[in-house]
Design a protein that fits this description.
about 300 residues; Rossmann fold; 7-stranded parallel β-sheet; about 10% strand
Length: about 300
């Protein structure tokens, strides 16, 4: 039997270190988790059923992967997920159902431009209803979240909730970007090349069309958003959530990620910063086995 420098038999030294290392490993195994599920809030109060078609699959997939998901919406989901908590504020649901839902269906009658400008005061009213609701106030006091996922369609009131919870936020654009949204996230405004979708222009615009296209988008951005909508909801948020709530533009520039339900082949070519990721089709189920019927022999 050989001895080491300590004077103890070698097998005792080896056995001792084995015992110590195993004990440390068991301690770390019991007290360390390899991955923690996050608490995620989905915020989509100014919305229609088509917005749920994009937002809800993202929520359910996060729930499937072990995250705790809360879905705050004004439109009730047709097929709720058993692991997702749903919150439908009563006052907001009633308002959206009776007032806002009809605006989109009247697009053909009043024109897309007027439809969008009518949504803005309604969206501000939704923010006020939400933050003044006693039901929502109680929910806010009892809740905490690690991240907030916000529908981009005039749902900037959700930024105030993210600030209140001290959580970073992600923006989900359920359709390609509108021209007035570009500057909000630091995206270059290319109105000389890309026509406003509310106009019947193509990419081949003449000089006067480019001028009108630019002015048309600026009118929405400056007059309706910056001078009316944002100041209104900033007042509501600071009154209900505290005076420390920053202005909307500051919170938008702190966006960590923007997911856009679009595909490069379906729209005009334009520049996107790294935080903007096109994810067209991400909401589509992957377990579909049915084959689409062949309507025509081939496409010419």
């Amino acid at each position: 039997m050989s001895n080491n420098r300590s004077g103890y038999p070698s097998f005792l030294v080896v056995t001792s270190w084995t015992f110590i290392s195993n004990s440390v490993f068991l301690f770390l195994l019991q007290n360390t988790r390899a991955c923690d599920g996050a608490s995620v809030l989905f915020y989509t109060t100014v919305a229609t059923s088509s917005h749920n078609m994009v937002m809800h699959p993202l929520a359910t997939e996060l729930a499937n992967r072990g995250h705790t998901v809360t879905y705050l919406s004004s439109i009730k989901v047709k097929m709720p997920h058993p692991e997702v908590s749903y919150f439908y504020p009563r006052e907001v649901v009633e308002f959206i159902t009776t007032v806002l839902a009809g605006i989109g269906t009247d697009d053909r009658k009043i024109g897309a431009a007027n439809a969008y400008t009518e949504v803005i005061p309604a969206a501000a009213h939704v923010c006020r209803l939400l933050l003044e609701s006693e039901e929502v106030k109680t929910w806010i006091e009892k809740s905490s979240f690690d991240i907030v996922v916000i529908n981009a369609c005039f749902n900037e009131c959700g930024l105030g909730l993210a600030h209140k919870f001290g959580a970073p936020h992600i923006i989900v654009q359920t359709a390609p970007f509108a021209p007035w949204q570009a500057d909000l996230y630091g995206i270059p405004v290319e109105s000389s090349l890309i026509p406003d979708f509310r106009l019947n222009y193509t990419q081949d615009m003449n000089f006067f069309q480019r001028v009108y296209n630019t002015a048309f988008s600026l009118e929405m951005y400056l007059y309706h958003l910056q001078w009316h909508f944002f100041p209104l909801i900033e007042g509501y948020m600071r009154e209900s959530l505290g005076r420390s709530v920053p202005d909307v533009n500051t919170m938008l520039l702190d966006t960590r990620l923007v997911l856009v339900n679009s595909y490069f082949a379906a729209e005009y070519a334009h520049s996107l910063p790294p935080l903007v990721v096109p994810v067209g089709g991400l909401h589509c189920p992957t377990n579909i086995t049915q084959v689409l019927p062949q309507v025509t022999p081939s496409f010419n």
